[in-house]
Amino acid sequence: MSKRTSFQNYAEYFTLNIVIFFIRLFPLKFSVKISQYIAVFVYHFIPIRKKHVLEMLSISFPENSQKEIELIAKNTYKNFMRTVVEIIFFPIMSNEEINKLLVCTNEHLAEKSYAAGRGTILMSAHFGNWELTALAFSKRYPMSVVVAEQSNKLVDNMMNDIRTRQGFHTISRDGMAFKGALKALKRNEFVAILSDQDAGRQGVFVPFLGRLTATPKGAALFALRVKCPIIIALGVRQNDGVMEVEFTEIPMPNTGNEERDIEIINTFYSQKLEDAVRKNPEQWFWFHRKWNTRP
């Protein structure tokens, strides 16, 4: 892959700012509606990773017809475009507006964990609007999110500014993630980690939608070494845009073998994620190359 030039970075950055400016000229509901038409256009005429998405859906849901698979794929594009538009509106939304966009099931688990004062690991995924779920949750509890750095540093800074201006802190996934997460846990924060991407040879292989997948070890490793609670938090988008989040605490294994404990935690997480994906397949980010690394 060729190295990006400064001109490319600045061109991308200023183009993105122009797009954001024009989107914010209209109300959120109108912009969301327009985004759905754009998503359909992109699906048919600018099919970025469309072949990959259709292939992964076909393998994951062999019982579905081709027409059903294509409908899920199209709705996946719609969900992503809606997510992008909603993120653009974060900086101009009030705390009250954001709070209304989160409904929690089993919130007593989060309350109990916070009261324990040891910090908490939240295992989440690129599901629903994961950014909105994190932002709304941070209005109720102190939180940091482990994020990947964008190749364009200008865009990366802009994204982190959008995230942090309204609520949560960010921890770079590259380099000092463990140190940053440890500090946040010591401050009794919730540390959210999206653990649904391919982790390469450093991951642990666990079942997901009928195939073994290389799942990141980080979330499980933090919880085991710091001895703090670990909770799964997946936000499901409702028709009105509200994110309905169900909290599920993962029982902490203690086999005496850290690698085996990590595998147990990730297997539990992957099963919960699979259940959510089967119920609302269009809300998961199928663009990821989840099964890129094979055992």
**H and E string:** HHHHHEHEHEHEHEEEHEEH
Strand content: 15-25%
Largest sheet: 7 strands, mixed
Q: How many E strands? A: 9
Q: What's the arrangement of strands in the largest beta sheet?
A: 1-9-8-2-5-3-4
Total number of helices: 11
Q: Considering DSSP H and I runs of 4 or more, what fraction of the residues is helical? A: 40-55%
Q: Mean pLDDT across all residues, rounded? A: 92
Would you summarize the structure shown here?
This protein is α/β, with parallel strands linked by helices. Helix content is 51%, strand content 16%. The protein has one domain.
Describe the 3D structure.
The strands form two sheets. This protein has a seven-stranded mixed sheet with strand order 1-9-8-2-5-3-4, with helices on both faces. It has a two-stranded antiparallel sheet with strand order 6-7. With 295 residues, the protein is of the alpha/beta class. The two termini are 26 Å apart. Helices cover 51% and strands 16% of the residues. It is globular. Helix 3 packs across helix 4. It has one domain. The model has no long low-confidence stretch (mean pLDDT 92).
